[in-house]
Write a structure and sequence with these properties.
By secondary structure, the protein is of the alpha/beta class. The chain has 3 domains: about 60 residues, PUA domain (Archaeosine Trna-guanine Transglycosylase, Chain: A, domain 4, Roll), CATH 2.30.130.10; about 110 residues, Transcription Regulator spoIIAA (2-Layer Sandwich), CATH 3.30.750.80; about 190 residues, 3-Layer(aba) Sandwich (Rossmann fold), CATH 3.40.50. The strands form 4 sheets. Strands 16-15-14-17-18-20-19 form a 7-stranded mixed beta sheet, with helices on both faces. Strands 2-6-5-4-1-3 form a 6-stranded mixed beta sheet. Strands 7-8-9-10-11 form a 5-stranded mixed beta sheet, with helices on both faces. It is globular and about 65 Å long. The structure holds S-adenosyl-L-homocysteine. The site of S-adenosyl-L-homocysteine has 18 residues, from helix 7. S-adenosyl-L-homocysteine (SAH) binds next to helix 7.
């Protein structure tokens, strides 16, 4: 048996680990045997010396991210087995062979007991994003595992970890191809066409987590004037147009994203000025737009809170943004409003939107609660993994 550095927990601190919570905080640690560096594999034991779990060593107060709860060698066979098992789960849920939807999240962090790793599949290519040194160090092996699990379907894997690694560890690393050289493609999502560029796009290239919420938006879109604010490459916009919206305006502060949004409208057959896309700041756009111009608005801002310290500021941001939109939306209108900040929970977000409704002086009914789809699963022992929260509001 290979021996890994040992993390010994304080008496009584093993309870969360026994319940498969994937994090160990430094405050729970009694002592460390060996000298693990950031990214090394470590094994955790209770105070009586019984094995608990295996994970990657992290710097700071979140000391270990766990990926195994039975003692074993962490080698190529282990990682290949894990990726194969996760692929099988996605297959059983209908994601891997769906001709109408050719993109899905294969690996979702803690939700798949793979803390620090995201892999998104776009047709025949995959994009890997490591958030920890431990996962980044083995990115080539993980990419090879994805190719093998896909039984030849995936022919290219692009590593897009640099931004996440810089933010999480401060280290500067390069992005690049781990397998093949396919950086862009066209995917189908519920038979809507989208152009993906993993190399130049944000995150892994597309926001797959809004797939089902886009479907719901389509149900409300017929005959409406739609504003897709923070529209990125036009995901919600294409669905709204297909569903018979009168007009769809897409707004985002990123000019490259807006260029792709316009292109996406076009490849789906929406090429008139009714389907215009604008590069603009959200707040400025909403402040200057005519009242009653839109009766279906989507607000899907980037994560306002990146950590607990910025949470209050973020809640103020959600309140202001939603109040501006609620004040301007036409009577009888519908607002889809989201937060993707992990540290803002559903209750906090709902409170911020409630405060916005008071500020705007509108009568507001909550008609749906929204979340993330089955390829972005939440580990039930790690509720923080439910990062995407949305409300659908009917505004009188
Ligand atoms: N709704 C999109 C995803 C939105 S991600 C989809 O379904 O694909 C958040 C987007 O907000 C990014 O595209 C980012 O460019 C944009 N953004 C960030 N700050 C902004 C601002 N101040 N005004 C407008 N857009 C902004």
């Amino acid at each position: 048996m290979v021996s890994y550095p040992k993390i010994i927990l304080k008496p009584g601190k093993e309870t969360p680990v026994l319940r498969f919570h994937p994090w160990v905080f430094s405050g729970a640690i009694d002592k460390t045997e060996g000298q693990p560096a950031e990214g090394d594999v470590v094994e955790c034991f209770n105070s009586k010396g019984a094995y608990l779990a295996t994970g990657h060593c992290m710097p700071g107060s979140l000391a270990v991210k766990l990926f195994a709860f039975t003692q074993q060698k962490i080698d190529k066979a282990f990682w290949f087995g894990k990726i194969k098992a996760i692929w099988a789960i996605r297959k059983s849920l209908g994601f891997t062979d769906n001709p109408a939807t050719t993109a899905f999240r294969l690996v979702h962090n803690e939700g798949d007991i793979m803390p620090g790793l995201i892999v998104d599949v776009y047709g025949n290519m995959a994009v890997l994003q490591a958030h920890t040194t431990g996962m980044h160090d083995i990115r080539q092996l993980l990419a090879d595992a994805v190719v093998e699990a896909s039984e030849g379907k995936i022919i290219s894997v692009y590593d897009k970890s640099s931004e996440a690694i810089r933010k999480m560890t401060g280290r500067i690393v390069d992005d690049g191809f781990l397998v093949g050289d396919m950086g862009g493609c066209e995917i189908l999502e519920n038979n809507n066409r989208f152009s993906i560029n993993a190399v130049t796009g944000q995150k892994t290239g597309f926001f797959l987590d809004q797939r089902e919420n886009r479907e719901l938006l389509a149900r409300f879109s017929e005959g409406r004037n739609v504003l897709n604010m923070f529209g990125y490459t036009g995901g919600f916009s294409v669905y709204a147009a297909k569903a018979g919206a009168n007009m769809v305006h897409t707004v985002d502060s990123s000019a490259p994203a807006i260029a792709i949004a316009q292109e996406n409208m076009k490849i789906n057959g929406f090429d008139s000025p009714n389907y215009s896309c604008f590069t603009a700041d959200a707040r400025k756009y909403i402040e200057t737009m005519e009242p009653n111009q839109y009766d279906l608005i989507v607000l899907d801002p980037p994560a306002y809170a990146k950590n607990v310290a910025s949470r209050n500021q973020a809640l103020k941001g959600y309140r202001t943004l939603n109040a501006l939109a609620l004040a301007k939306i036409k009577s009888g209108g519908i607002l889809f409003t989201f937060s993707c900040s992990q540290v803002v929970d559903r209750q906090m977000f709902t409170s911020a939107v409630t405060a916005a409704a008071i500020d705007a002086g509108r009568k507001v009914r909550v008609i749906q609660h929204l979340s993330q789809p089955a390829d972005h699963p939440v580990n039930i022992f790690h509720q923080e993994g439910e990062y995407l929260k949305g409300l659908v509001l009917f505004v009188e």
